[in-house]
Write a structure and sequence with these properties.
By secondary structure, the protein is an alpha/beta fold. It has helices at about 5-10, 60-65, 90-95, 110-115, 115-120, 125-140, 155-170, 185-205, 215-220, 240-245, 250-255, 260-265, 285-295, 320, 345-355, 375-380, and strands at about 20-25, 35-45, 50, 75-80, 80-85, 95-100, 175-180, 205-210, 225-230, 230-235, 280, 305, 310-315, 335-340, 360, 370-375. It has two domains: about 5-265, P-loop containing nucleotide triphosphate hydrolases (Rossmann fold); about 270-385, Roll (CBS-domain), CATH 3.10.580. Helix content is about 30%, strand content about 20%. It starts with a helix and ends in a 24-residue tail after the last helix.
């Protein structure tokens, strides 16, 4: 292999490679039970594959076989169509990003020096390492001036971001993440998850992500491999398919009884075809509205009063419709008003809390664009459409906003 900085340099934004497990197996000693048993699955380039399962199921072993920190007993793993066995193990590890739960920063080295660990091995010059470190600190949401500090001077969340920056420094085609947020408190953990998904939207790396937390797997994964003892994959699917069509009792129990609500957490109100309600304006003859309600294709049996900019004011009752014209103040309260970008689970919670079967949905300007009903949600969850993911992980609702200290 050629030597020198020009030969070892990986060009910025080089993309991602697929990862293919082909009957990959790992046995320790004379054990009859494999740690990983005949693992065969394909991770498309640029996607996040989450390996999830109970302790001892082989998920970390399966991930570590990719960079050969654990050697396979049988089978193969291909990165970009090339066997990991075809490369020197040390060189392979320099080409694959690796983030661990304990972060693993060197306490006696500055943040810039920590990030530059692999580039230094690749022969990069000091000025180049410093420039790349500053670029990556900004990319992960940290002040580049932190580069001269030491790990002990940073918070746990900041250190974890540095760990991600270090894994990205040589622009790897594949990243391995072993419970990267497991040691962080719940609030900062959610923030770091969100920040990583935002980062992934920019860099689009192939990521193998290990966790024991099914909620984290559903949030972070484009595809999820549910593993059990003996290193066997019970189901490999998108989060939507996993939630709405678990392959067997083990997967169903592992995913949890609230899987329908988890499915709604992956969607926004705009992902569902909304119903239309007859719209009414003040002073309009109620006979026109009664005629609309008598139509065979009416979806919402109550007219919705709106102003001249289609902003909802309230629902008209039978008493309102008995008058000759629509009154200025409707007899029934408006109830919850939803935004098209609201998370579906939150929207359903608002409706149930307000005791409403129907809720007006508005756009960014406050104008009515449709009506969400409890019936629509129920029908969706039993339909084939519920098994289909309409958003990759980086485009799903993220939950809490903000960044860690």
């Amino acid at each position: 292999m050629p030597t020198g900085e020009a030969a070892t340099d990986i060009q910025p934004h080089s993309g991602a490679s697929s990862v293919s497990y082909v009957g990959a197996t790992k046995r320790y000693g004379d054990s009859e039970l494999a740690a990983v048993d005949d693992l065969t699955l394909e991770v498309p380039a640029g996607e996040i594959c989450v390996l999830v399962g109970p302790s001892g199921c082989g998920k970390t072993t399966a991930m570590r076989m990719v960079n050969r920190t654990v050697e396979m007993s049988a089978g193969d793993i291909l990165v970009g169509g090339e066997s990991v066995r075809s490369k020197d193990a040390a060189q392979l590890r320099r080409e694959i990003g690796y983030v661990i739960q304990q972060i693993g920063l060197f306490p006696h080295r500055t943040i810039t020096e920590n990030i530059g660990t692999v580039p230094q091995l690749l022969g990069w010059k000091r000025d180049r390492i410093r420039a790349r470190s500053a670029e990556l600190l900004a990319l992960v949401g940290l002040d580049p001036d932190l580069g001269d500090r030491y790990p002990a001077q940073l918070s746990g969340g900041q250190q974890q971001r540095v760990g991600v920056a270090r894994a990205l420094v040589a622009d790897p085609l594949v990243m391995l993440m072993d419970e990267p947020f497991g040691a962080i408190d719940p609030i900062n953990r959610e923030r770091l998850q969100n920040e990583f998904l935002r980062l992934q939207a920019q860099v689009r790396k192939t990521v193998l992500f290990v966790t024991h937390d099914i909620d984290e797997a559903i949030k972070m994964g484009d595809r999820i491999a549910v593993m059990r003892e003996g290193g066997r994959v019970e189901q490999y699917a998108t989060p939507a398919e996993l939630l709405m069509a678990p392959a067997n009792e083990f997967v169903e129990d592992f995913v949890g009884a609230d899987r329908a609500l988890k499915r709604l957490a992956l969607m926004r109100v705009s992902d569902i075809d909304l119903w239309e309600a007859p719209l009414a304006t003040v002073g309009q003859p109620t006979a026109e509205l009664r005629a609309k309600l008598d139509a065979p294709d009416v979806e919402v049996p109550y007219p919705l009063l709106v102003d001249d900019q289609r902003r909802p004011l309230g629902w008209l009752s039978e008493r309102d419709l008995a008058a000759p014209t629509v009154p200025e103040r409707p007899d029934s309260p408006l109830g919850p008003v939803l935004d098209r970008d609201d998370v579906m689970r939150d929207a359903l919670a608002d409706m149930l809390q307000g005791g409403a079967q129907y809720a007006a949905v508005t756009d960014a300007g406050g104008a009515v664009v449709g009506v969400l009903s409890v019936e629509i949600i129920s029908e969706f969850l039993v339909s084939s459409a519920a098994k289909v993911d309409e958003h990759p992980a980086v485009e799903r609702p993220l939950g809490a906003e903000g960044s860690d200290d």
